[in-house]
Write a structure and sequence with these properties.
- By secondary structure, the chain is of the alpha/beta class.
């Protein structure tokens, strides 16, 4: 159990106690003053718009046992609980996370990539769970502040192994979080264009993703997608080794006999002479690669490939990522957690593969953080859709207009309607959907298209 005293936390984070007893027990870490579990350490982060130091008193009122502060050199009048002075609250949190990781003896698998890292995280955890007690990153705690909290939470129960998602959006971020997580194995799913606006080029994204090795333990294993052109010729750092997965002959864990039935993939996993049939309950051919990464991670940790494959066959997806509902003779696919050109094209392909439905309707919103070429990326997604079997396109957001343009260039007869207001889109769907329709919702999380999906599905519940 990762419980520490306030005095111990101050020591490992380089802080000084301004108020309160160093013997005060701390059981949780919170980054939100309204979300306390009891005996929390509240860490006020300084963002571009909000400095959370203004919520210190509120955090204590809500149950925080201790707080970090970089704005006080003495406890303010009326303060209660334990106040710990640090120079930088984010760096202090990272130091605490690094210390927590150092106390844990269990192996850690780090997951990163431009697309599919959360689904891969979930599938790796599912495969390992066939024979292991598995910890996995809670929610989206995959950032410079989320990973330290994950390290703390990892130590709260007895686990055999951990699967930790590592995300990045700026240069140098991966090195920071990889050194905190200190993985024994590192999986990279692919190199795409997500965050290219911040990183400048796909080559920079590749270098940043590969820097997960900055935290990879000596003797560690780098697990790479051998079908990705950026990763296929990559090598592990000195003292570590690389393992490839994919459909190519260069792959140590290979998929053969790939086929789709009503959008659901099946394949034969081949490794060291073993041939294991795998039937997935998540849609899309791209899930084969995610499943292979999971099988590789499981096998390399001593889990039977056959049992790992069986566990994968029970996996049905993750909230906001290809969640399926059948209502009133209609199919709804909620894939709104996030979006990139690769993932949107894949989702469109899934929609196109659904044969039993009368109309296939794509509801697509803006893809964010694509930089100066964002218009081109949206048009290319539209062109792909225009060549598909989609019957109707509904777009939402200013950038999504380019999706519509690209689609109509390829298929001028496509039924297409654009919306600038979420409420108007929702009303259109409520009035026009009927039995026999299959509807895909896909867009960046900030567009809140998932709210539309939820409301429409609830209406037809």
């Amino acid at each position: 159990m990762m419980n520490m005293t306030a005095g111990h936390i101050a020591e490992v984070s380089g802080g000084t106690i301004l108020l309160g007893s160093p013997r005060t027990p701390v059981e949780h870490i919170s980054l939100n003053s309204n979300n306390m579990k009891g005996n929390d350490l509240f860490v006020p982060l300084i963002g571009e718009k909000v400095d959370a130091h203004r919520f210190l008193f509120q955090a204590v009122e809500q149950g925080a046992a201790a707080v970090f502060t970089s704005e006080h050199r003495a406890a303010p009048e009326g303060a209660e609980g334990v106040w710990i002075r640090v120079e930088d609250t984010k760096k202090a949190l990272q130091a605490l996370g690094t210390y927590c990781r150092s106390r844990l003896g269990l192996p850690v698998i780090g997951i990163t990539g431009s697309v599919g890292k959360t689904t891969t995280r979930e599938m790796v955890a599912a495969a390992l769970s066939a024979e292991r007690q598995v910890f996995k990153t809670p929610g989206n705690y995959n950032s410079q502040v989320g990973v330290p909290v994950t390290m703390w939470e990892m130590g709260r129960e007895d686990y055999d192994i951990a699967v930790v998602e590592l995300g990045m959006s700026e240069v140098g971020e991966m090195t920071v979080i990889a050194r905190i997580a200190c993985p024994d194995m590192a999986v990279i799913t692919n190199i795409g264009v997500t965050h290219i606006g911040q990183l400048g080029s796909q080559e920079n994204i590749y270098r940043e993703k590969m820097s997960i090795q900055d935290g990879l333990k000596a003797g560690g294993i780098l697990i790479l997608n051998g079908d990705d052109p950026w990763l296929a010729k990559s090598r592990a750092k000195e003292g570590c080794r690389v393992v490839f997965y994919g459909a190519g002959e260069n792959c140590d864990y290979r998929a053969e006999d790939i086929r789709l039935s009503k959008g659901y993939p099946s394949f034969t996993a081949v490794c060291r002479g073993e041939r294991i049939p795998v039937n997935l309950k998540v849609m899309g051919a791209h899930q084969v690669g995610n499943a292979l990464a999971a099988l590789a991670a499981a096998d390399l940790n001593g889990v039977s490939l056959e049992k790992a494959a069986g566990a994968l066959e029970t996996f049905e997806g993750y909230q906001g990522r290809q969640q399926l509902w059948e209502r009133d003779g209609m199919m709804f696919i909620d894939d709104t957690y996030n979006a990139s050109p690769v993932s949107v094209n894949g989702a469109v392909d899934i929609l196109s593969s659904l044969d039993k439905y009368r109309r296939r309707i794509a509801v697509l919103a803006d893809m964010k953080e694509l930089g100066a070429e964002e218009g081109r990326f949206h048009r290319e997604v539209g062109e792909h859709l225009g060549r598909s079997r989609v019957d109707m396109l509904l777009t939402f957001g200013e950038l999504a207009r380019e999706i519509e343009k690209g689609a109509l260039m390829e298929n001028p007869d496509l039924a297409a309607v654009h919306f600038q207001e979420k409420e108007a889109l929702e009303q259109f769907l409520l009035e026009s959907l009927r039995e026999g329709d299959a509807v895909l919702f896909k867009g960046s999380n900030s567009m809140k298209l998932g709210e539309v999906a939820q409301h429409v599905c609830q209406y037809h519940n």
